[in-house]
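Running co-folding for phosphoenolpyruvate.
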Amino acid sequence: MKPLIAGNWKMNGLTASITEVEALIGKFDGAAPDDRDVLICPPATLVAGFAVQFSDEAIQIGGQDCHAESGGAHTGDVSAEMLADAGAAFVIVGHSERRADHGESDAAVKAKAEAALRAGLTPIICVGETENQRTAGKALDIVSGQLEGSLPETTDDIVIAYEPVWAIGTGLVPTNGDIAEMHNFIRTKTHFDTRILYGGSVKPGNAKEILSIANVNGALVGGASLKAEDFYPIVMAAPGAD
Ligand code: PEP
């Protein structure tokens, strides 16, 4: 399976940040290796500009969220169709920051994932437990419920990102055994060829170890995706597709 290394820039990045993407491409020395997929999800303001600028490069551009409807009276929202029109290929849905900050339910995330598929985008559907839920021994149950509630009816072209909430932006990472257990569990709930990404404090120093765990088919990277010098070694740490 071709690994996917996705950068989530969150609410970071101005037009000048294009230099980081140029620096990343520069490190590829002409062409990104074709045995891995590289994705950058900048803020919505930068999607179209990046997609146009890098249309000939071996990196793809994605959104960080989309509305479930294609258009209408939803001030401030962006639809999946708009992202696709802007040149995006993927969209993250159900990130824990959106579930927390915007009260997004599993049903809302499912509707967004279905909207993404309708628009021809691949949704990256995020799931993950909180620290209290893990401490209480409920991590598998929580993720199981999120998958049941958030996955679209058609699951042919989706990506799942397992992101323990307590590992995001904290420098904390589950043990390799806990990552393996969760990814193996998610694998039993989805297609054999659905990519399952790990996300949560992936850094150049731990990427190789995490990306070599069975059923970890890539990474969703927040903070360390903002600088080419950090993101490049993470991209290259993924074992390539056979
Ligand atoms: C994320 O925002 O999806 C994420 C994993 O962040 P970080 O890599 O900074 O923990």
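Result summary
The two ends are 7 Å apart (CA to CA).
The chain has one domain: 4-31+39-68+77-237.
Job closed.
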